[in-house]
Amino acid sequence: MDASAPPPPPLLLLAAAAAAAVLLAVALECLHAFWRPRRRGAAARRLPPGSTGLPLIGETLRLISAYKTPDPEPFIDARVARHGGVFTTHVFGERTVFSADPAFNRLLLAAEGRAVDCSYPSSIATLLGARSLLLTKGAAHKRLHSLTLTRLGRPASPPLLAHIDRLVLATMRRWEPAATVRLMDEAKKITFNLTVKQLVSIEPGPWTESLRREYVKLIDGFFSIPFPFASLLPFTTYGQALKARKKVAGALREVIRKRMDEKLEAGGGDGDDEEKREKKDMVEELLEAEGGSFSEEEMVDFCLSLLVAGYETTSVLMTLAVKFLTETPAALAQLKEEHDNIRDIKGNKQPLEWGDYKSMPFTQCVINETLRVANLISGVFRRANTDIHFKDYTIPKGCKIFASFRAVHLNNDHYENARTFDPWRWQGKNKLQNAVGASLFTPFGGGPRLCPGYELARVVVSVFLHHLVTRFSWEEAEEDRLVFFPTTRTLKGYPINLRRRPDSSF
């Protein structure tokens, strides 16, 4: 064989590959050396670690399947253990930074309207309306929030407290001495009728019940898929919700127009006297506010969104407080003792007053613990208006962020045996009562969007529990369990067998 002949092609390929490998190694080493001094700066600009899951759908299916079980915590726990308290995921169609860090959550709540703004799925935005309290921003949100506080932020008002007392008793009078009721349904009737009364001064009856049935369909559409032309597809959940929204808005619009006409016929009244006189409901507050500058559509959207808030969350809180008490007999016994003492002092037929409410310390422990364990508002969505720097991470402008209250409330680092219902943890002067505890406990949100009706919700639940435990005993009619998607609730509405106490009367 000729020694000067070229090597066979396979050897040429091997030689070329070896040379390329050497060159690549040299190039990588040069790049490594080039970037090594800058690594600290690059790390400071990176997103929180995480996984975006499958193409397009991300980790949405994993999240939903976890939250449809009684124990969704593994979804969060696994990612916090792997990535830390702030991590990146991909849910509901876009990349989302998920926070289980109380310090970052506080930052987000306080930065509302500056570094971040609220951001919700399009289905919720369409069904509530652009002018609703949840979706308005800046000065528009501030004035609506202030009006809501004026009307619903004063539960000590004797007329309001008396109405709550009457409404709860009227509902319970309809229960047979020995009956099976779905407690969630009964609680929703109470909260819906109370909210309607505060908004438009209409007593329970056919009109309110018809409106409530449409509200159920509307709320079901919040986390449904907003198909294009859904209004032409009434067989879909979202299509039914759009149709229900139209009916609810129409009913509220009719009431508002009638009140506007009545105001015109009355000539508007004396300005100074009108300012001093207590308004009878929210519609009257809106008609008088800012010289009557609210448009009809603004009032419709505003009232519609307040009905959703009043109807859903407080009724679930009432139901779950009873469920957790039933499963914790020692807590139920202590609660009964507290309320029996109040009733012994007042007598059976005397209505509750503000002083009675303030003498229910253990009841407030029960409510706090129900809020912490149940997490009726599991968290809030925000969108970054600017780059946000937190620890070693940078969350870019435009990124969706979810601040999880649930992840903080159920973290054993913040609460001992965090996933156990323990109302006694709120007694006495412990760390939960100081500033640190307050910063960890955010069941009603915080910052400029702190729920304006949070104290009213506590009063309604307290009055309900008082009349329930002093007039009835009960047991679970069938096993029921909690699920957390699309909202926190029990699967069966929590059916219970009631027995009227022989020493009670209405």
From TrEMBL:
InterPro entries: Cyt_P450 (IPR001128), Cyt_P450_CS (IPR017972), Cyt_P450_E_grp-I (IPR002401), Cyt_P450_sf (IPR036396)
Names of required cofactors: heme
Gene3D superfamilies hit by this protein: Cytochrome P450
Pfam families named among the record's database cross-references: p450
Chief subcellular location: membrane
Domain of life: Eukaryota
CDD domains: CYP90-like
Keyword annotations of the record: Heme, Iron, Membrane, Metal-binding, Monooxygenase, Oxidoreductase, Transmembrane, Transmembrane helix
Gene Ontology CC annotations of this record: membrane
GO molecular function: fatty acid 2-hydroxylase activity; heme binding; iron ion binding
Pathway noted in the entry: Steroid biosynthesis; Plant hormone biosynthesis; brassinosteroid biosynthesis; Hormone biosynthesis
Cellular location(s): Membrane
Topological category with respect to the lipid bilayer: Single-pass membrane protein
One GO-annotated biological process of the protein: sterol metabolic process
Residues that bind heme: 451
PANTHER family associated with the record: 3BETA,22ALPHA-DIHYDROXYSTEROID 3-DEHYDROGENASE (PTHR24286:SF44), CYTOCHROME P450 26 (PTHR24286)
Family membership noted in the UniProt record: Belongs to the cytochrome P450 family.
UniProt-recorded name of the protein: Cytochrome P450 90A1
Protein's organism: Eragrostis curvula
Organism placement in taxonomy: Eukaryota, Viridiplantae, Streptophyta, Embryophyta, Tracheophyta
